[in-house]
Records
---
Amino acid sequence: MSPKATCAPDDLRTSRDAVTLSRFPPTLCSPVKEAGDASGPSNENLPLKPLTAVGGKSSSVKHPKSRCEQSGQRGRRRMKANDRERLRMHNLNSALDALRSILPALPEDAKLTKIETLRFARNYIWALTETLRMADQHGHTPDYLASDLSSPASVFSAEWDSVSPAEAGYGTTDQSISYKSVDEASCKLFTRDESSAFPVTFYFKCGESDLRNTWHY
DNA sequence: TAGGCCATCTGGTCCT
DNA sequence: AGGACCAGATGGCCTA
């Protein structure tokens, strides 16, 4: 984006020290009403974390006079902007949590980081798409999965378990996940149909590498 | 203790 | 004018 400006007005100029000294819990500088007003229509049930020290998670920092305490329109605008930004990031984190929830479950205490979640999701979607493609090649694509294979977004993992064998007319398609580490996991997809091309095991990666260059089964 | 991750503040830019 | 989005900066927490 744009380079940072270095010519802010004196009253708002941000030296490192100034920024540091300005950080303290929003509760101390943001009227409750304003924090609520900053929310959009979908924020009421957003579980806001306890307000913490600015720039950190502890409340043990001192709270010297900061920009937040400035009076005047500019200070109020900045406070409202901070509230909106905080809310925006909370919404972003909620979306990431929702994404984590539909990815194969991780072992306890192995929550994916943000970047790992995005990379894992990308590779997982790709692997599922490959699975469908292979099943299609072997003539084992149930109707309910025979959607447009070029559109991975139309495939939801929940669907694997959502149709009974009788409904689908095929062996049950299922998956089991095992993790070698947070960075690498294998996903075994199989059916009970003996003649099927399954089981197939995909190796997922959460790291930087492109799954399409490294995957195997 | 260093490094990774995270939440938050902040100012700039773009859009409505 | 105000809101959304973005990236830089900063400090706290956690772990190897």
---
Amino acid sequence: MVAITLPDGKVRSYPGPVTGLDVATDIGPGLAKAALAVRVDGEMRDLKAGLDRDCALAIVTAKDADALELLRHDAAHVMAEAVKELYPETQVTIGPSIENGFYYDFARPTPFTPEDLERIEARMHEIVARDEPIACEAWDRDAAVAFFESLGEKYKAEIIGSIPAGQTITLYRQGAFIDLCRGPHLPSTGRLGKAFKLMKLAGAYWRGDARNEMLQRIYGTAWFDKKDLDAYLTMLEEAEKRDHRRLGREMTLFHQQEEAAGSVFWHPKGWTLYRAVEGYMRRRLEANAYVEVKTPQLVDFSLWEASGHADKFAESMFTITTQDDRHLAVKPMNCPCHVQIFRQGIKSYRDLPLRMAEFGSCHRYEPSGALHGIMRVRAFTQDDAHIFCTEDQITAETVAFCQLLKEVYSDFGFTDVRVKFSDRPAKRAGSDESWDKAEAALSSAAAAAGLETTLNPGEGAFYGPKLEFVLRDAIGRDWQCGTLQVDIVLPERLDAAYTAEDGSRRRPVMLHRAILGSFERFLGILIEHHAGRFPMWLAPVQVVVATIVSDADAFATEVAATLRARGLRVETDLRNEKINYKVREHSVAKVPILLVVGKREAEQGSVAMRRLGSPDQEVLALDAVVDKLCAEAMPPA
RNA sequence: GCCGGUUUAGCUCAGCUGGUAGAGCACCUGAUUUGUAAUCAGGGGGUCACGGGUUCGAAUCCUGUAACCGGCACCA
């Protein structure tokens, strides 16, 4: 007897082994038709997997959140089958489901072309129409290795070969295609449906290692129905519309050019935005008892040797040899310089914690392929600070930092923030004991700050563990911005010390921390998050005063002057154009407030206010408008 | 850095198999004084990314370089 407990608590008993499909059929033909897989005691299995003992069973249908993963995994297999049919000389490697879709990596001497993608996609539809059953087979490892070697699939054979000997593995067969796979899979290729699309071609290293050969990766997206697919494609279009590179040009915020690859030319409007962010951050730092410093751009290479950067990061540093043969580096980070300030004079425990901030301009020679708009550049400015403190102060400083960070993100319109805890990497400085201590201190501090963290194993900095703060933007994309890193190595290397209460000489701990990360990147994120429609306090131009007739010019000028005198960023539009034209232009330019002034308003001393995105207008007396707008344009905090 | 792609007017793009460049928008000028998302008419503007080569002739074919785009790797 096999007793199957269903999610509603009902128990069904069967005389012998059954499959999930049997149970679903038993419950009803509708469910049997919708069934894609089963969850047995919480674990996802094939619909046709045998159930030979008592268990809890749930039938998985398209409504289940993780059913999409199954679908996408199947899509990867169907794509691989299509590729093997069309290009038999191609070797298959791996093809997992990923967020929004799937990919498969292929090995072949000649790369795929965009035309190949169309052929492959068409063939995938044929395979779906064939509705080939997908069957799971158990194989002996060595037999599987031999089998794939005989097929000339050396990558597959290598993967299976790295599975411990003697273990039974599963292969999935659909039509003539057979692949190593842990499963589970849908019952047949027909279940994939039609809502999929191949998206792009890319190179990818075998086993993710740049020293290995490069494979051809094909990315696709897959959904249960066309509506979801279309929604996803629309979302991609939306993302493209708010691309910071496009908006940067359209809104004349900045530009980039070949002669300064990886740098930003900030135009007046972009720089206004930048300064609004910088001014806000400066006020927040002052309110949180930081001191601000400014350190040199060019520093003798010996300091980087002492700090340890020369060993590990020399390739990323811009270096200069002067006419008199001095070897300098443009600073890639600020910490060694901050330690130099700390080291001036004698520090006492009474000076700690010392929170030293700098809007530090740094240069790193990023690999050419890494550059991306203003998000990944070679010249950038960090909202950097180093907190010199005692071990006992780590917790309080971490708690205070997390609080500040949360407020800042919220002020910029980000409320969904996740936290990752990155522990010791393989390549690191410092003893295991000191790492034990630093990791313990940071994780208990994170707990004290009330953070829920997910572990990011081995991703810590070489000098210490870190917390990484990831914020989610308006269209659901994640951006890692803030960081807090415990550093027990640098104070030692650069000989930073303070005099303790008992007169002994001690090493401070350094907390490296940033909230925005880099201004350039954060501004890129801000642009995309707001789609260029900034809140008042950030908008480069907050108000445009536009006239309907030239008789209103004098009054419009007066309105603008009044607002400007109160600190608002105002422009006038006195051109000889129709008001429709002006409304459209300033709307397209994403100016939050348009004040329209015609003959009536000029006579009455009023303005007609129109907000971006709303066709409504409100006629207000000048005084009232000034107060209202000043209040709205006030930066937070 | 690696794989693939792209580079034509300020922007978006067209230019078939080689015969010395086009459109829309933007810009400039003129007319229009206009009531809430594009008024009309005229005009100017391009060493076709850069360097080599093939050819009587190259935006177009070959080749090298750079930047950019999409991934991969990297991200102290």
---
Amino acid sequence: MRKTATLADIAASVGVTPMTVSRVVNESGYVHADTRQKVLRVMQEMNYRRNGLARGLKRQRTETIGLVVGDVANPFAAEVIRGVREVLTARGYTMFVCVSDQSVKEEAEAFESLADHRVDGMIVATRASRKGNAHLMTLLDANLPVVALGRDFNHPHTDFVSADHFKGGCDATEHLIELGHRRIGFIGIKQSYGAGLKRFQGYLETLRKHGIKVNEDIIVGRRKGTDQAPGYSTEEIGYEGMKYLLGLRKPPSAVFARNDFTALGAISAIKQIGRRVPQDVAIVGFDDVPLASHTSPPLTTVFQPTHEQGRIAAEFLLRRIEAVQNLPRAERVLPCKLIIRESTVSGTEST
Amino acid sequence: MRKTATLADIAASVGVTPMTVSRVVNESGYVHADTRQKVLRVMQEMNYRRNGLARGLKRQRTETIGLVVGDVANPFAAEVIRGVREVLTARGYTMFVCVSDQSVKEEAEAFESLADHRVDGMIVATRASRKGNAHLMTLLDANLPVVALGRDFNHPHTDFVSADHFKGGCDATEHLIELGHRRIGFIGIKQSYGAGLKRFQGYLETLRKHGIKVNEDIIVGRRKGTDQAPGYSTEEIGYEGMKYLLGLRKPPSAVFARNDFTALGAISAIKQIGRRVPQDVAIVGFDDVPLASHTSPPLTTVFQPTHEQGRIAAEFLLRRIEAVQNLPRAERVLPCKLIIRESTVSGTEST
DNA sequence: CTGTTAGCGCTTTCAT
DNA sequence: ATGAAAGCGCTAACAG
């Protein structure tokens, strides 16, 4: 079973050589109009499908690229995928997405699979890790073009695209301080794990800058550290985290949440015990997911240009793939933007 | 540039034939321990990566499968992906995800790419369409194993997995009727487009069953029909749709939203004008996204076993791939479950 | 335990 | 405008 017609089959049936059929398939070189017609007809009849394996093997490129993401359930990943895809399909490339489920092991397997199947390049948008980076390094030895998106990876022959999460974190915190808050909590990561989380570092840095002592008691991550590398922070974490903060003797008057979902969970927790946002607790999120402007109260958050990051990553990658020489590293850090809504500044309406 | 070591390179360097190196790489056949060590060392040194194209070409299978989804921004897709992946990786297969962005054209390109690159099978979880189905048919002629997930596709050599959306839609509507509602709106699709949307058909059917006349005025889709095949319905559509319904002379007393995001948007709209859920308008969603239990009020919705659908689809596919004969069609429709929360029945708390 | 042969399906290069 | 030859990198099948 599973017998697919090959160029040779078509050729035999038409009475030409495989080379002629190849010319028809690829629309390259001269083929007599009559021959072409005959070939096309037989191709149709035999339901010909070209063999990308053989083709790629011979041509030494597949016109495919791999995109590795840690997770797919959040708007960030979805928008990155769309951005990358737009650019790639326009240029005739096919994108294969691999999902690592935030596991370093699965991430490594994705790298290997993609490399084995000879994608022409790879965009890596997983969370950075020591082991993951080491793996990437070995692939680079094989001269595979790679672009890192929204994650650290330093290599002279790798491009880098990200939003300025650090600055975004600063702006969000600055905003709360300007509103008079001094006791500002953070939900989404424990301090000991936060070294790689730029937006959290921005929070810490801004507090310090204003002479506000960092208070570990009001920095909360997920309850139990079940997995080593915390993935995307959820509304559940926001809800639980806020519950905890509200139970303290002196709860914070404002909270910066790691992302919008976490922020929404926090708002739920606040409203559930009959407190008000922002009067009792002000909340800032991060990402500006579509939902953020439709919640009550609408969420103050930091917008990051996700789609654009995807597009630029794809462009960087194609440039690198199509380059004759090994290109020097390109870096691009896009600005974030604080969007002030009613979860920090009470406006016309508030629940 | 981009010169990767081949089996032949390793073999030459060690002083054996490529076949011996192949045996080491694949851990097949006998190789002397010393030889193996030497080969392994050189492989490491030369950073060997096997060529999946050559391998697949020779072996006539790639141990990869393709998963085509329309969209990736919603929890449904994310969970399907996780379910499929779990089963596949456990069995040594690699999964490549292609995203069609709800476009029939992109979907067709995904099919072709995957078929060209000789995936061993395909799981199709896009929205069904006439053209899309026709395309799938041609692939089946090439004997490519295919499983349809959550979308119609009738073919004797294709498996089918879905949740019982129709029954779910009935249950949701029944619930509202039991609560005394007679004027029940629907947000998420216009009646003229709803033929393929089972949960909507369940709504219509249940109204009829109870002798409630279907009222087109309170069935709303997206404002302007920009795209022919409406994709995933968003909170924005819910918000706008509800705004419209609230502006009617006689607004519905209950609304069944196409999915949870739409439902949440609707709730926002209701609260924004100072009305209450469920006292003024009761809302039911569909899907039971994680957020649903954390909203205020918590959302009554219909749970569908998404993860399980992914797992079963993957199992069906592997069975088909590894079968010697062409298997008959397998079908599996999983039950949904109505989850009653406070957006239909006022409990202890309500905003 | 290792090697030889052949060929998977395609395209590059050179001929005609 | 078409064909012949060779080989991309790998492995199945059969020696030895």
---
Amino acid sequence: MKKFKRTTVTAALPYANGPLHIGHVAGAYLPADTYVRYLRLRGDDIVFICGSDEHGVAITLGAKKEGVSPKAFVDKYHNLMKKAFQDFGIGFDIYSRTSQPVHYETAQEFFKTIYDQGIFLEETSDQYYDEQEGIFLADRYITGTCPKCGNTNAYGDQCEKCGTSLSPRELINPRSTVSGNTPVLKPTKHWYFPLDKYESWLKEWIVEGHKDDWKTNVYGQCKSWIDQGLQPRSITRDLAWGIPVPLAEGKGKVLYVWFDAPIGYISATKELKPNDWQKYWQDNDTRLIHFIGKDNIVFHCVIFPSMLKAAGKYILPDNVPANEFLNLEGEKISTSRNHAVWLHEYLEDFPGRRDELRYTLTSISPETKDADFTWKDYQSKVNSELSAILGNFVNRVMVLTWKYFDGKVPSAHELPGTNDHRKRILEKYQQAHNDLNASVKEMISALDDFRFREAQFQMMNLCRIGNKFLADTEPWKLAKEDMEAVSCILSYALTVVGNIAIACEPFLPDTAQNIKKQLNSTGIDTGWNAFWKKAELIEPLPESHQLGKAELLFRNIEDEEIEKQINKLKKPKAVEEVKPESAVKPLKETITIDDFTKLDIRVGTILTAEKMEKSDKLLKFTIDTGIDKRTVLSGIAKHYTPEEMVGKQVTLIANLAPRKMMGIESQGMILMAEDADGKLRLLQPNEAVNPGATVS
RNA sequence: GGCGCGGUAGCUCAGGUGGUUAGAGCGUUGGAUUCAUAACCCAAAGGUCGGGGGUUCAACUCCCCCCCGCGCUACCA
């Protein structure tokens, strides 16, 4: 394995359209922070980079919804996230944002560098432009008359009636479905990144080169993508919010958010290290690590590396330890349903208990598969692991030392094995020492491999071994007969406590500080980091050193506290505060009664229902419409089973042009209500009517 | 439907290249103990290793089929 001189660690740039929840934390930021703390303790040269991702359509839509400017919108969430990270103790070297001037420059320069080599594909096409809204219209936001069959409601990409695929420009009398106005044709040019040209290189670099050192979920996902064949991706958009395309002919266009966002890592590094940022991005002795969630794998493993490769000079990620997702109480975390534990709310509800959340999230870290956070687990981990094992061990050693030695580190001289109980103590000491060193080694090796769950477990193991050592040697019994032995036992127990203070720092930084405070070790801890390089116990405390007061490290979580949290999940938020996405769709353009009467809406009865072969969404029905019995396909397989549909009355558009799907012609469209979560429900008359009943 | 990743004790998870009684932590039960937040220590019970075939002297570990979870993807008019 290659030896690197320094490491650049990035954590996914969170999108600035909502607050952070524990899923974000467990997925990327906590493992990244743990890893970075470990590297720092080891004394490595490292930068830890993050920031808010602030561009893209979703931001402009969110801003519109809140009735503020995009800038004001991202300011709000950027500040919220930045504060939450800070309060939680994620130790970024910099938390920047993609609206920074330095990022504009960097992203534009990056674009230019690739552009100047003639790598981008350019494609100019006339596209419809809505002058009232000031936007270019995507194909399906345009309707008009089909040139082939005269259907007046053909879409920009396809005519429903005759089934031919169209381009918007073929439509006669096009209309914008956004404003209802007639759009004008304007030429627009876009730039494409030829991902396909990097296919063979990606195969070599990932499929062959990282077969063994990348996580299986990451590797599999990449391989799947590469094997499916890559295509050029457009990297510019006609949008007002974003980074302007740095070309004369790119006026009014911006870089696609996915293009500019990862460059944000580089910009933030520049901001942090204006003079030698290149060291962290363009030196082959630097190791680049991206911490992300699984939704970001393709971007960080395939697209961004290809961009870096195209730009030249840049190093490529050495590893991308992506996590899977975190569920909450058995269900997916959902922003719109407010089924989430928000980081800033946790910090308010559990002040001074950051390590408790860190510990729980690391112990269930979704490293190999989706994981589930439950408040009961949280309580159990805090009470029976942190408190009972770690907190208790440190406390009993402290208390014993105060009791027998007035809080001074006792002498650790050789204990002559002159009698049976002393021989036993020596034996137990030897066993503990071997076990402890084995755990330290395993912990460090797990940290090196991004196996944080295991690493943290080994850290706790130090406490378990410590507890066992005390139980095996029973210094409280020996106090009456052999203080020399007690002295040796407690001296060693304190050594273990000191090493725990060191070992727990990547996982439980506050606890590390608390233990150090109790040990009163400020000033004598200069050599402590040798622990990480030697990967074995060090001797942290000199003889006669005066300890601080014993205090409990953790307080148990009571049932009421978690009940409160569970109840909180059950209620949707009363006040609109954390619901960026669930808004109601805007009203469509006004139509006339004539438009409406063109529709022939009927009630029909479902006679038969079956699942379509090879389709996840389509169900195939025979419907008695009163007039005829016809075949209708509908994409509701995720919401209804065929069995429960038979016999039901449904509303359908009976005069919709037939349309072929997966080889079968559908003669009509069943009407469904769709709620904010995308759940579909049937529209039915509230009492049975005869098949063929009209709707008006 | 295609592709990818998972499905191991009540819970969270380990189990290179197949080989004696499948492991750990938490939980449960019993015991011991009192320095400690009834904590700690010891012990026990708990698993047809998603299901079914196959290869093999031998499979949790290899092959095939199926089921379930998650993700990407096609089909949602």
